[in-house]
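Handout, page 2. Input:
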Amino acid sequence: MKTLKYGFAVALLGSASHAFAQYNADALRNSQLQPVGTARTLGIGGATAAVGGDYGSVAVNPAGLGMFQRSEFTFSPGLSSINSDGRAFNTTSSDSRSNLNVASMGLVFANRRTDDDTNPWRSSALAFGLIRTASFNQNFRYNGTPSQNQDIFQRFSDDQKAALDDLAYKTYLTDTDAQGTYIPIDFDRTGPLNQGETVRQTGANTQFDLAYGANYQDKVYIGAGIGLISSRYTSENVLTATDPQAPTSVRDDGKSFASLTLRDNLRTTGGGVNARLGVIYKPVEAVRLGASVQTPTYFRFTETYDTSLDARFDKAVTVDGQTYMSASSALDPNVFDYAVTTPFRATGGVAVVLGKYGFLSGDAEYVNYSQARVSRYNNNADFGSDNDAINNLYGSTVNLRAGAEARLDMFRIRAGYARYGDPYKVQDVDRSRSYYSGGLGLRQNNFFLDGAGVYSTGTRLYSPYSISPSVGETPTVTVDSKQFTVTLTAGFMF
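Output:
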């Protein structure tokens, strides 16, 4: 049986007006990418489909390896600072976090024929390395006073047969009728609850690449690559609800609620595989046209989920002759395996080389998120409802990237912009992501040093739990994120 981990939706990215499917959010999370690679690639907004000559192009168009003249090694550490604003219940709460990462590391072995060699295959290159293709790091929180038809007790009134219902019953927050149906308890509350939640998400997808590129007559460049992906994602959620004022008098039956704390922990680990093919063509020396395709990535995941609920009362509650001022209940950790197949991707790009002064580049990437699929692995689970939700929620989009590099003797100046489109069909909130980048570089003899800064913005919707429309209204939190990442790349040519 599938885990009911989204009783409190750990990573629900969809609108609260849609159906609450379980694994559609996991499929989207692993299908969305970001500008990736070295500091040079990041500095031009990731627009490398037709540029080549940099290890960062491996993740987009491996044909760029055919432009390498010399072998090289690059290492790209980074530092990210993320600020988030959670807006719910007419209040805004801010949170932030920072983290170190390795954006990429690559080793390229290049072989260039001498000018007097008449073989039309002028050069080739073999590359090994890793690139971080997605980051899941984010902290956010929210708090305030929800309306009574949105608060956690309204959720207890909604008999959804989820793990949360069992926890609430075992902590004396609900009761059952003669048919065994969960029913709310008439607690003595002084007014609306103070309710809030903190969410801490960590992890990343890191792709390990083996790629090859070749150069035909310095005019046509072809390449292919295989990517093995290591995926890690964790989410720690703590939701609290408090009666802001103790009652001046407590009912004789002791049914006076004080507070509750719900804790959810989810850990997902797995691996995936994909392949890429690409070509770059130079119709004239100053123009390069690039195109590439990436197969769907097939992932296998193992998730571990656990949850607990603590409740406190203003007066001891008597149950079966026992009295309690508080109660706790927890579910045993649930381990579950499943698979995700992400969509096919196609990218086209153009670069205009301005002689020795630099270049301009632009990319367009097509991806249809409704093609993602969740499937069983090591179990007999039925994911039909999850795949229906993927079809209903997500659509196709075009991701755009543009960049420029200016060359001033040994120095380089770069700028770029990327816009990754909203994956949702119903765009009640704009959930596209924008990336603004810039960078500097220094190249001298056998060494080069590049730096890039990327400022990104985006909005997502999050719902801590679902409430049936016939019972109440599902609360929705709007999370606005701003992230600034600095990446340095040190390279050595040999």
